């Protein structure tokens, strides 16, 4: 039913009944964000972000940060560590990444062994892979 690394938001009753649970609410702004501003939740493994920073391409690091930002949203909502996330276009927009640059940056991150991704309708399903220090 649920992969142990995949985080979803919903009640236990919904999960037991097999009701589809949204991956993240459409609106990710909450009271805390309005009060404190938004941030990328850590920790982000230094070896992971360092490897992303060394890759070529104008927006590769931006996309890597967007992925880590969404991972942090999952962890705040689900209260558990997440390695598989669904990320939508508006998350990349927050980091100044245009639509045509997104896929190229995702390809570079995948080729570097930082992520695996698939396109799933309007979103990308991204698995964040561990990196040796």
Written account of the structure:
About 45% of the residues lie in helices and about 15% in strands. α4 packs across α6 (about 100-110). A three-stranded antiparallel sheet has the order 1-3-2. β2 (about 115-120) and β3 form a beta hairpin. It has about 130 residues and is of the alpha+beta class. The protein is built from six helices and three strands; from the N terminus they run ααααβααββ. The protein has one domain: Orthogonal Bundle (Arc Repressor Mutant, subunit A). It has helices at about 10-15, 30-35, 45-55, 60-80, 90-95, 100-110, and strands spanning about 85-90, 115-120, 125-130.
CATH class (first level) name: Mainly Alpha
- Total individual domains: 1
Task: Fill in the CATH topology.
Answer: Arc Repressor Mutant, subunit A
Distance between the termini: 33 Å
Helical amount: 40-55%
Could you report the average pLDDT, rounded to the nearest whole number? 81
Largest sheet: 3 strands, antiparallel
SSE class: alpha+beta
Q: Which sequence of strands runs across the widest sheet?
A: 1-3-2
- Binned strand content: 5-15%
Query: What's the total number of strands?
Result: 3
Low-confidence stretches: 9-14
Radius of gyration: 15 Å
The DSSP helix count reads 6
* Series of secondary-structure elements, N-terminal to C-terminal: HHHHEHHEE
The CATH architecture can be named as: Orthogonal Bundle
Inertia-based shape: globular
């Amino acid at each position: 039913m649920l992969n142990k690394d995949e985080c979803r938001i919903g009640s236990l009753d919904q999960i037991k009944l097999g009701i589809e649970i949204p991956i993240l609410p459409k609106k990710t702004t909450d009271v805390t964000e309005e009060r404190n501003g938004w941030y990328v939740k850590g920790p982000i493994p230094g070896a992971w972000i360092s490897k992303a920073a060394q890759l070529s391409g104008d927006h590769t690091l931006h996309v890597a940060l967007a992925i880590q930002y969404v991972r942090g949203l999952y962890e705040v909502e689900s209260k558990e560590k997440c390695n598989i996330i669904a990320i939508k276009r508006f998350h990349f927009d927050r980091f100044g990444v245009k639509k045509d640059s997104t896929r190229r940056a995702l390809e570079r991150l995948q080729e570097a062994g930082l992520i695996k991704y698939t396109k799933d309708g309007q979103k990308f399903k991204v698995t964040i892979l561990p990196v040796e220090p």
